[in-house]
């Protein structure tokens, strides 16, 4: 596993102080269990998962965290080639955390405590394929123990028949805004 990075418009990958964790990227076809997991995700959501990004397994040790962010790409001119934007996210919780480590959605005012075996799923994009700014989320600091998760990002490129784009804009309820601190 290597230090987790974030996407940077210049270098494409950058280690930062606002994301402290380690991760590894795994190909689904290398492990039968992961293929089953992906098939279950497709059955649950109805989304086409044939072209999603590799599974990102991440570990947040003591103090590990990821400050509030969106999973969709804000700069739609620099989308990963052949994938499109991230239409949805699924977090597979692979461990219990003794204290801390929740996934928090500050704009929606709720947090999910990690529980081994659970999956957290949400759409990142509206049906118009505009980003849903309500999905800003964070990995709260791990205060005791260790947090293991598997991130699956389902991309929009393979969804024209499973989740068709609407002809009208439907993003009025979640326009970008700034938080006043």
Salient structural properties:
single chain; about 180 residues; mainly beta; Jelly Rolls; six-stranded antiparallel sheet; five-stranded antiparallel sheet; 1 helix; 13 strands; about 10% helix
Q: Structural class from helices and strands?
A: mainly beta
Order of helices and strands: EEEHEEEEEEEEEE
* CATH class placement: Mainly Beta
Major sheet: order of its strands? 1-3-4-13-6-10
Helix % is: under 10%
Radius of gyration: 16 Å
What would CATH call the homologous superfamily? q2cbj1_9rhob like domain
Number of helices: 1
CATH topology: Jelly Rolls
Number of strands: 13
| Net shape | globular
Largest sheet: 6 strands, antiparallel
Total domains, how many?
A: 1
Estimate the strand proportion: 25-35%
Q: On the 0-100 scale, what is the average pLDDT?
A: 84
Low-confidence runs: none
Task: Report the end-to-end length measured between terminal Cα atoms.
Answer: 35 Å
What does this structure look like?
The strands form three sheets. The protein has a six-stranded antiparallel sheet with strand order 1-3-4-13-6-10, with no helix packed on it. The chain has one helix spanning 32-45, and strands spanning 2-3, 19-20, 22-26, 55-60, 65-69, 86-93, 99-100, 103-105, 110-112, 119-123, 137-139, 142-144, 147-155. The protein has 181 residues and is mainly beta. The chain has a single domain (2-155), classed as Jelly Rolls (Sandwich). Helices cover 8% and strands 31% of the residues. It contains one helix and 13 strands, in the order βββαββββββββββ. The relative contact order is 0.22.
